[in-house]
């Protein structure tokens, strides 16, 4: 296993893993979703192993089994439930259409046995591999402190947020673009905080409970339950699937300090990609363990999560998840010795970018201000503080907040 990983680490580009992937030295940028223009003539030809279709500026290579599997006829697909009827296991793997033509903006294929499939050209352009290579899964605005502050992103207001779908949509749009969003005017209670979170997603119950409320009493085996400063980090990196959204509400603070630190991890990752593409690639492929061990009178836990620091979609190299927690990172024993030094160099370069003062956004949480943080993207930390400081919050499921965004017409 180590020999195979070693050889993989020596490769210069991720494109060598799958033919046709983009050169990883090209920084990822926001792209416009591929849309075929109405009236654009399409050209198609049948080859031995695929159909080649040129439409709307996109040249697509469409596998024949893939085309049959994605037929949208009533016999093959249930449009009411959006589920496949066709048994993929019954498709002849050597299938090839007997004829093909383009009619009224659709590709029309006739298969052996007489079955006819019709595909919208725009649908094919959007759903082909070539189309996905040129598109972004989730549009984002990457930010440092100056960029975010100049954007003047408004907070949602509790009264309208809880009753107005337009206010919810604006909130979700800000959350998707920036990875953080605020609701102001929330009553300073655990109950009101729970209500505002359930407006956007489902609460993810963990070993910390459903809704938690804590002070610096060391009631759990975690430095968060102290008055110490915390460096930037993502939470639950020791879960196989880290929690998607972190919610904080400061209910009370009778003292000084305690500002919240926010850093856009994707902004730093893109800087690393531009400056050192080899180091960026290394951090996307080396699996690292994170661990949470708790042994107190009331709690016993041993969590273990494994994954690279940076996670990217392989077809377009878009970053979708960062695991960065120096407190909970476990022993590095998943890579051969001659790759360890290179990993530390790459990690140090990312850390340097994350710790640049211009990338730090400091926010003072006060009673009534609830913050939602994309835990897969934005890191949080805090100043040390004095006095009684009481916070409540929870984790939310990522799938459900993305679903809520799509249901109001947002790309997520």
Overall 3D geometry? Answer: globular
Return Rg in Å: 25 Å
- DSSP strand (E) fraction? 25-35%
Distance between the termini: 36 Å
Helix content: 25-40%
Major sheet strand order: 9-10-20-13-22-11
For the biggest sheet, the summary is: 6 strands, mixed
CATH H-level homologous superfamily name of the largest domain: Clavaminate synthase-like
The overall average pLDDT, rounded, is: 89
Low-pLDDT ranges: 1-38
Oligomer state equals single chain
Helix-and-strand structural type: alpha+beta
CATH topology of the largest domain: Double-stranded beta-helix
Q: How many β-strands, per DSSP?
A: 22
- How many domain modules? 2
CATH architecture tag of the largest domain:
4-Layer Sandwich
CATH domain class name of the largest domain? Alpha Beta
Number of helices: 12
Structure description:
The structure is a single chain. With 412 residues, the chain is an alpha+beta fold. It has two domains: 43-130, NE0471 N-terminal domain-like; 145-408, 4-Layer Sandwich (Double-stranded beta-helix). The chain has helices at 2-9, 64-69, 121-127, 129-133, 145-151, 158-161, 165-178, 190-197, 265-275, 277-285, 337-354, 398-407; strands at residues 43-46, 50-55, 58-63, 77-78, 83-84, 99-103, 106-110, 116-120, 156-157, 180-184, 212-214, 230-233, 245-254, 260-264, 288-295, 300-307, 310-312, 319-322, 361-363, 370-374, 378-382, 388-396. The strands form seven sheets. A six-stranded mixed sheet has the order 9-10-20-13-22-11. The chain has a four-stranded antiparallel sheet with strand order 12-21-14-19. Helix 9 (265-275) crosses helix 10, helix 9 (265-275) crosses helix 11 (337-354) and helix 10 (277-285) crosses helix 11. It comes from Seriola lalandi dorsalis.
């Amino acid at each position: 296993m180590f020999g195979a990983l070693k050889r993989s680490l020596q490769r210069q580009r991720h494109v060598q893993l799958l033919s046709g992937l983009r050169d990883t030295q090209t920084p990822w940028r926001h792209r416009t979703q591929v849309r075929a223009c109405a009236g654009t003539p399409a050209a198609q030809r049948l080859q031995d192993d695929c159909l080649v279709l040129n439409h709307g500026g996109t040249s697509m290579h469409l596998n024949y089994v893939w085309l049959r599997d994605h037929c949208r006829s009533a016999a093959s697909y249930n449009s009411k439930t959006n589920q496949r009827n066709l048994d993929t296991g019954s498709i002849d793997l050597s299938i090839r259409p007997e004829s093909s033509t383009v009619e009224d903006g659709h590709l029309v294929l006739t298969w052996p046995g007489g079955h006819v499939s019709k595909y919208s050209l725009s649908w094919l352009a959007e759903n082909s591999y070539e189309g996905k290579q040129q598109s972004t899964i989730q549009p984002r605005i990457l930010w440092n402190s100056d960029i975010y502050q100049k954007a003047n992103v408004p907070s949602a207001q509790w009264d309208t947020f809880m009753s107005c779908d337009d206010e919810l949509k604006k909130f979700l749009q800000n959350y998707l673009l920036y990875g953080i969003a605020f609701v102001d005017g929330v009553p300073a209670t655990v109950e009101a905080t729970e209500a505002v979170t359930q407006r956007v997603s489902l609460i993810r119950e963990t070993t910390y409970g459903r809704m938690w409320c804590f002070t610096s009493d060391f009631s759990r085996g975690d430095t968060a339950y102290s008055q110490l400063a915390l460096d930037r980090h993502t939470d639950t990196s020791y879960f196989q699937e880290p929690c998607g959204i972190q919610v904080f509400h400061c209910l009370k603070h009778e003292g000084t300090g305690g500002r919240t630190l926010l850093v856009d991890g994707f902004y730093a990752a893109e800087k690393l990609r531009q400056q050192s593409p080899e180091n960026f690639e290394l951090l996307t492929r080396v699996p690292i363990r994170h661990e949470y061990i708790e042994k107190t009178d009331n709690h016993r836990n041993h969590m273990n999560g494994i994954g690279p620091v940076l996670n990217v979609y392989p077809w377009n190299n878009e970053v979708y998840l960062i695991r960065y927690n120096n407190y909970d990172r476990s022993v590095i024993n998943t890579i051969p010795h001659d790759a360890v030094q290179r990993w530390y160099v790459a990690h140090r370069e990312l850390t340097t970018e994350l710790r640049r003062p211009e990338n730090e956004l400091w926010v003072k949480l006060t009673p009534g201000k609830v913050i939602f943080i994309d835990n897969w993207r934005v890191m949080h930390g805090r100043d040390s503080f004095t006095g009684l400081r009481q916070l409540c919050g929870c984790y939310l499921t990522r799938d459900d907040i993305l679903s809520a965004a799509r249901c109001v017409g947002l790309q997520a």
